[in-house]
Amino acid sequence: MKTVVILVPETAVLQGIADPRYLFTAVNQFLSNADKLPLFDVKLAGLTKEVKLNAGTFSIHTDVLLHEVKKADLVIVPPLSGDLKAAIDRNKEFIPWIVDQYNKGAQVASLCLGAFLLASTGLLNGKKCSTHWLFANDFRNMFPEVDLVDEKVITEEKNVYSSGGANSYWNLLLHLIEKYVNREMAILASKFFVIDMGRNDQSPFIIFKGQKDHDDELVKKAQDYIEQNFQNKMTVDELSDKFGIVRRTFERRFKKSTHNTVVEYMQRVKIEAAKKSFESNRKTIYEVMYDVGYTDIKAFRDVFKKITGMPPVDYRNKYNKDAVVA
Asked: Most CB atoms within 10 A, among 41, 80, 191, 296?
């Protein structure tokens, strides 16, 4: 029997507690239906017997108090909500407990914004981690020692797991079922809960809004200039000359502030404009390509797929119901 402990922090997202509990208990039922013994002992653990969520709208009655759990096999850290720094501070008593359980051999998995609490333990330092793409800049600023791969739906490294944004945590939960039981059970669970298996990329869902949560005013001016003139051809040399700074220094400061190279930033701005165009009008791939400043169809397709995880035509057909395949 595997002990699965689902943490119930204050400010947690209700679904991030209820859904994993439902999944693991459902798998127990599937096993029983197949004349097999249940595998998971699922417990909700908190600092108090009752935890109010969503400003008191919901209450969760925990199965055990945190200090009563001596040994867990799997620890689930649910998504947090609200001010994340404040949420971490309110739930800081979970941090040493998570570290202690990991050191005793437990596997630890964060769902969506639960990555912020997990990262606060230091267990993610030097490891890959994902979280909701909308909070990627905040995460990088708070936890620079963690290798954030926000385009991923699932990360797994040295018994530490994380998931991407929102409902993508179902993919991580299915991944854990496959590891603890087998693939056949994971497939059955995916069909029961109507979840697409195997998706490990949230790139198509990412909306690029720039990365301006920094204090380098020169870099902000360069970002604004790129965003206002992305249709025009520009080089890094031209930008560094325009803002009166040596290219090497410009590139170093830009990368430090935005976590992208100058070229990557220009590409992301162009591709975000292309995505919006595909979503809202009936233009052809070539028309959109020219609109955002590309003249080479192969280069456009390659960059688009690298950033979004799918070719331009697939993206257009997915998000524009009126799209006509050229």
From this structure: 80
